[in-house]
Structures are given as structure tokens and as C-alpha cells.
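User: What would this chain look like folded?
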Amino acid sequence: MNSTLRDADYYTLQFEKSQHGLLTTSSAHALSPLVKLTPRHEAHSRAEFGLSDLKSGRGAGVRDQFLMRWWPGATTGASRKFVHWCCHAVLCFFACLAAPAFAKDTNLSVADRVLAPLEAFQDCAVCPEMIVLPMGRFIMGAPLEESREVYLFWNNPKPDGEPMGMEQEGPEHEVVIDIPIAMGRNEVTREEWMACVEDGGCSHTPDPRIRKFGGGYYYADDPRHPVMDVSYLDMLEYTAWLNQKTGTNAYRLSTEAEWEYAARAGTQGRFAQGDTLTLEQANIAIFRHADGTEYKFREKGERYLEDPNNRKTLVLVDMLDAANAWGLRHMSGNVLELTMSCWTNRHLGLATSSAYLADAQNTGSCKRVPKGGSVGSSKEYARPANRGTAKEFTRSPRSGFRIVKELE
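Assistant: Here's the prediction, encoded as C-alpha cells.
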């Protein structure tokens, strides 16, 4: 992490991922047209070719030796200046060709591997598959009016056209992601959790049953179902076991800021998929008015109906067209995903992801923030900006989690 920040004045790699200033990096080949040489970078490249400072004349002995060997007649006068100029141009050309080699420093390392942003890896056979997230920045939170429908579901309209929404989703503020992380492609699965149970790292065996309305149960007991019926305290057991198994101290839950950054995947709308969300994209619920139009908000005395295509239980993590632009699946719907951040009535307005991490780590026991919505809940709760609360010991058939790993 720090080496990337320290080297910012050494070279600049600008790759515009979105109109909101998200910076990402790719392979050296893809970045080569976008490499900008700062004075220090250019001098470094010249030094590699034995010309520490062409303009000042230092290194002229190298040029003279070159000319005497390959163009003996061009050692004085205008011809010499012309050839010097040609040498300068050729060497700068090769220095620019060499510049993409520095792009490797913008990649992130896992053990002895160097990984590019959006590259996937898996530390062990029973470990979750991880995706390296690009470094960047984003606007956390949402405008008040974005949560109007949630507000109107729980409250009566305000008088005189006063703006309505959930104030807990503000204030909007920019957050710089300054800790490099990878995030689980999927929610932690039942198979991955049971590996921890069987290895003695997790003390709780989750109940796979989801009660049906009217009696009976659905069962989410497939190895590829997201694990549920686990509390925040249970999740800490899992990450501790995973760290011990992989010989690191890098796995943990995400902060709310990291989760929202990952869920948005470079977008800034209501959903990562656009202005709306469909049942083909997320395991959520859609409700309709009596005339069949999509339900927007409550009107006094009005009843609403469920869409007949709503699912009643969890789906496997591989199902649906559920990946966002970064390949993370089911960031909206399926199970609520608990973060390590403590609930606050409003966002803290911190400037960096490291500041949000420090706040979460330095706060004692508290209600934690779940994100992402779940099966059976309105798509409005699956917006990246939506926030909830959960007690640390609560286990729910609609709550699960995904993990992050800090990278070097």
C-alpha cells in the first residue's frame, strides 16, 4: 500500500475507469500509452541507458565515444550537434518503451505473486475465491431523494413538498481507497464455512432452514448456497481460522466504505446495474400495485402484491446474472452482508478507507452495519447506499457475509 502512495511523485499512471475519477490499472501493455513520465521518472530512465542528464552535458563522454566509433566524421560543428540530437531522440524513444515496466509497481502482491486489478486468486482449496479491487476513490452515500421510496414505506409524506429520504444514507462524501484489498467474488458459501467447522475453527453449525409463510421450511443446504444463520461473532471465528490456515493476518470483514466501493464498481447510480434492478440480476422481491404496475411507495389504505416471479429462498452463489462490473456476484440481494463498521445515525464523513477501518477497529462492541438487501426484501434495500443495523450476536436466515483480504 505505502509503496504505491510513495511512488506517486515518481511516476503517474492515469487510467480513467469512470466519469467519477476512479483510477484503475491493467497490464503494462495496456497502460503503455497512458504512462506519463515525471522529471524523476525520465531521469531514472535515462540513467538506465548510461545518460544521466543529456541536457546538462553530463554523460557527454558516452555520446562522444558513440560518435567516434560509429560516425568519426561527426565530432565537431553542426554535424555533431545534429547527431547528438538524433541520439537524444533515439534514447528518449527507448526510455519511453522502458516506462511500462514501472507499471508492475501499481499491481499488488499476494505471497510471491504479483496480481493486476480485477485478477482472481484463491489461497487454498477451501478458501474463498478473491478478486483484487482497483485502487481509486468514490462518493459514499446517496442524495436524500434516492431513498424516497424507503422513507414513504415507513412514514407519511412530509408537508409542502419538503424533500423526503433516509438521512442515514448521508452525507455524501468522497472516500479515497488507500488500503489495497481483494474481496470475495461470492458470499462465503456453506461449503467454505463447514470446512472451518470440520477443522475446529468455527464452533457454530448453521441451521439451513428458512421458514415458509404458513408452515414448513425451505432448505439452503447446498454447498454453493451462501452461508446464513451466522452472527458477527461467528464471522470473526471464520476469519481467524482463515488467517491461521493461510499463515497471514490479512483476512477480515470489510468496512462499510470498502463494501460500498466494491458494490458500486465504478458507478454512482441507484444500483451498479443502472437505475433499476431486475429479478434476473438479483435475488430480491418486486412488488406491484393492483393494476400490475411496479409498486413505488405506500399510499394510505393501498394494498400491494408480490410479483409472481419472486423467489422464496436463497439461490446458489453461481446463479443469476448477478456480477457487477468487477466480477463480484450478489452484492445486491440473496443474503444481507454484514460489515465490521459500527452503526451511526449518519456517515462519519471520513476521507479515506484507512480512517474508516481505524474507526471500526477502535470501537468496542456495537451494532454492525449490514448491506446489500436480501431475498424477500424490496430492491430499494439492495441499493449500495442503503444501510441497516444488526446486533453482534444475532443469527438470521437472511444474513451472511463476504470477506476481504488486505494486500501488500
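The radius of gyration is 27 Å. If you want, I can go into more detail on any region.
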